[in-house]
UniProtKB/TrEMBL annotation:
Name of the protein in question: Nickel pincer cofactor biosynthesis protein LarB
SUPFAM superfamilies to which the protein is assigned, alphabetical: N5-CAIR mutase (phosphoribosylaminoimidazole carboxylase, PurE)
Pfam families (UniProt xref): AIRC
Domain of life of the native organism: Bacteria
PurE domain segment(s): 119-248
Xref: PANTHER family: PHOSPHORIBOSYLAMINOIMIDAZOLE CARBOXYLASE-RELATED, SLL1489 PROTEIN
Length: 248
């Protein structure tokens, strides 16, 4: 999108030729910057409230760095790169200041957004082994300006651990329930609260868990109302959706 295009819209808006709503719609429709191997969606923040996030898996370090450069030149204040390893983060750090969390495998360039949420997002995990996915959800939500409370290793094998945190759970605006094995914690939490519960099945578990398929099916079949489900190990998707709910 060129400067002349924006100037024309602003002039028409100033002269009363178009309404504010129509001007905003025209801006929202301007799509992307084509850099050959990728098309950077600069207007995603305008359309959806959040900038484009870089999915790092499968990309070369050079590709990630070039995408970061284009986004910074477009005045993006916070850039998330998901699913990258320590080695990739170290190579990015040679050019840009990056915060890297090895647990969630998320890299962040820039500062977290200021708190824009209307309440707390509570991230609950069944076991310690679910923490990488839970942290991906939590850090994503924090980066987009939400207050996050973490309650880890509170699964149904010891339900008293979860019940010891009823105040935090029942005052949440959104809950993200992360679990592998049989994924039962989503139904338990869903039966306690009056807010949406986003269930995240993980690939944690023994053979018959089928790399998260058992937890996925269990969560999809939850008898608790208000439970929705994202894909296996999709902590990012859960954190993003929880942020959208918390900021409406």
């Amino acid at each position: 999108m060129g400067d002349q295009f924006i100037e024309d819209i602003l002039n028409k808006l100033q002269n009363g030729e178009i309404t504010r709503e129509k001007a905003l719609l025209k801006l929202k429709k301007q799509p992307f910057e084509d850099i050959g191997f990728a098309k950077i969606d600069h207007h995603r923040k305008l359309r959806q409230g959040y900038p484009e996030v870089i999915y790092g898996a499968g990309k070369t370090v050079e590709q990630i760095i070039e995408i970061i450069s284009v986004m910074i030149n477009n005045q993006e204040k916070v850039i998330l790169i998901t699913r990258i390893g320590q080695e990739v983060a170290d190579q990015i750090r040679e050019k840009y200041q990056i915060q890297y969390d090895p647990m969630s495998r998320i890299g962040i360039i820039g500062a977290f957004q200021s708190n824009r949420g209307h309440g707390s997002i509570v991230v609950v995990s069944g076991g310690t082994s679910d923490m990488p996915v839970a942290e991906e959800a939590a850090i994503t939500a924090e980066a987009f300006g939400n207050h996050v409370i973490r309650l880890y290793d509170v699964g149904v094998a010891g339900l008293h651990r979860l019940l010891a945190h009823l105040d935090e759970i029942m005052s949440a605006k959104v809950i993200i329930a992360v679990a592998g094995m049989e994924g039962a914690i989503a139904s338990v939490v869903g039966g306690l609260v009056d807010c949406p519960v986003i269930a995240v099945p993980t690939s944690v578990g023994y053979g018959a868990s089928f790399n998260g398929l058992a937890a996925l099916l269990s969560m999809l079949n939850s008898c608790a109302s208000g439970v929705c489900v994202v894909n296996i190990d999709n902590g990012f998707g859960a954190g993003y959706t929880a942020s959208m709910i918390n900021q409406r």
